[in-house]
Write a structure and sequence with these properties.
The protein has helices at about 1-20, 25-30, 40-60, 70, 95-120, 125-155, 220-230, 240-250, 285-295, 305-315, and strands at about 180, 185-190, 205-210, 210-215, 255-260, 265-270, 270-275, 325-330, 355-360, 375-380, 385-390, 390-395. The protein has about 400 residues and is an alpha+beta fold.
């Protein structure tokens, strides 16, 4: 088991560095808004996780790579101690990228020694659990790296591409259809097979009323029809807070859409600026925008239980791998939820307020990281993530 875990560890850590490879050191140090973090910080924080939660408690004669890193790269773990302010991560010109890479290499070598047997058989189960959690945590940050660097690059009038390869045009859109589900008493939450985060537990019974779910995601072309119909100029389909948000920010389109000198719609992507592909699934909309579109279309957003129920049935297309899908469900604990002891108990539970659940996965989600019970969550105004829309209605 440890051999496979060591291979998984090496693969995940390599992939993180590969994601940073197309970027300059200047790219990696930039922070475009308080909600986003510099790539350099992601590289260091994911390493901090292994150093703090594994090496510090398991390595004989532990000594930190650098004492200041305990504060600089702590994200939100109050149980660990002080933290560098999140909104000021872009001010960390030091350590340099070279030192962050050296930090990663040092911690990797030390974790490898533990996995090779240095920790001893008595604690191997605890080590395996912590390394697995750390790898899942790093995969979350791999997706965040892509979303955050996209936001950074979008701030430049040069509209630089993260990826040099051309963006393939989407295939023709599948016909829209409503898929009917009988509902009933459903098992919701992780089924115990493989890894899960604590917020996916405990598995529990929940009644799901009969409902219908869209057979596919909303496309750019369909959302453009909402814009052309005055969607951002009419308060009627919007939640009150959403309408205030639209007016305060003077919004008229999704975050990465813009019109060129010929009034032709373009979209900024990881491949740079591209003509808006009307057949591609819509991404980068907030809950406010998703809910407004749903109301305009005579539908609604699914609950997270409806989404999971349908995902397990396997009838709908584009449930995974395109964009995270907003639900109407507030992010709250499942019945019987409890947090783990210590700082690791801060991983999910303390964020269960003023956020909404997203389900599925996106094109930026690492392979193998998605599952039907996964609960992503963001505040209603967040739209720099790869978030989209799937419609629902009462059947």
């Amino acid at each position: 088991m440890m051999d496979q875990l060591q291979a998984n560890y090496a693969a995940v850590r390599r992939h993180t560095l590969a994601l940073a490879a197309p970027l300059s050191d200047e790219d990696c140090g930039a922070q475009s808004m308080p909600d986003a973090s510099p790539v350099k910080w992601h590289l260091a924080h994911t390493t901090w996780f292994f150093e703090t939660f594994i090496l510090e408690r398991m390595e004989q004669g532990f000594a930190p790579f650098h004492p200041a890193f305990r504060i600089l790269f702590n994200s939100y773990y109050n149980g660990i101690g002080e933290k560098h302010p999140r909104a000021q991560r872009g001010l960390l010109t030091r350590p340099a990228m070279a030192q962050v890479r050296a930090y990663r290499a040092d911690v990797d070598a030390r974790v490898a020694r533990l996995l090779s047997g240095e920790v001893g058989a008595a604690r191997s189960g605890e080590l395996a659990m912590l390394v697995t959690l750390g790898l899942q945590h790093e995969q979350q940050h791999q997706e965040l790296m892509l979303t955050d660097v996209k936001h950074v690059l979008a701030q430049s009038l040069l509209r630089p591409a993260y990826l040099d390869a051309p963006l393939a045009r989407a295939a023709s859109v599948a016909p829209f259809a409503w898929l009917a589900f009988d509902g009933g008493l459903a098992d919701i939450g992780h089924d115990g097979a493989g890894f899960s985060f604590d917020n996916e537990l405990p598995r529990h019974k929940q009644y799901v009323a009969p409902f219908a779910l869209a057979s596919r995601l909303v496309t750019n072309g369909e959302y453009l029809a909402f814009i052309d119909a005055g969607g951002y100029a009419d308060a009627a389909p919007w939640l009150a807070e959403g309408w205030d948000w639209v007016r305060a920010n003077q919004l008229r389109a999704p975050i990465y859409w813009f019109q060129d000198e010929h009034d032709t719609w373009q979209e900024f992507t990881l491949h740079g600026a591209q003509p808006l592909d009307l057949n591609r699934p819509l991404t980068h909309v907030s809950l406010f925008e998703a809910d407004a579109y749903a109301h305009w279309a005579g539908a609604r957003l699914p609950t997270e239980a409806e989404w999971e129920y349908a995902a397990v049935q396997g009838q709908a297309a584009q449930m995974f791998g395109h964009c995270w899908q907003w639900t109407s469900s507030s992010y709250a604990p499942y019945p019987g939820f409890s947090t783990a002891e210590g700082a690791l108990g801060e991983y999910n539970g303390k964020f269960m307020l003023n956020q909404y659940v997203l389900r599925g996965s996106s094109s930026a989600t690492p392979e193998g990281h998605a599952r039907a019970s996964y609960r992503n969550f963001f505040p209603a105004g967040a739209r720099w993530q790869f978030t989209g829309i799937r419609l629902a209605r009462r059947d």
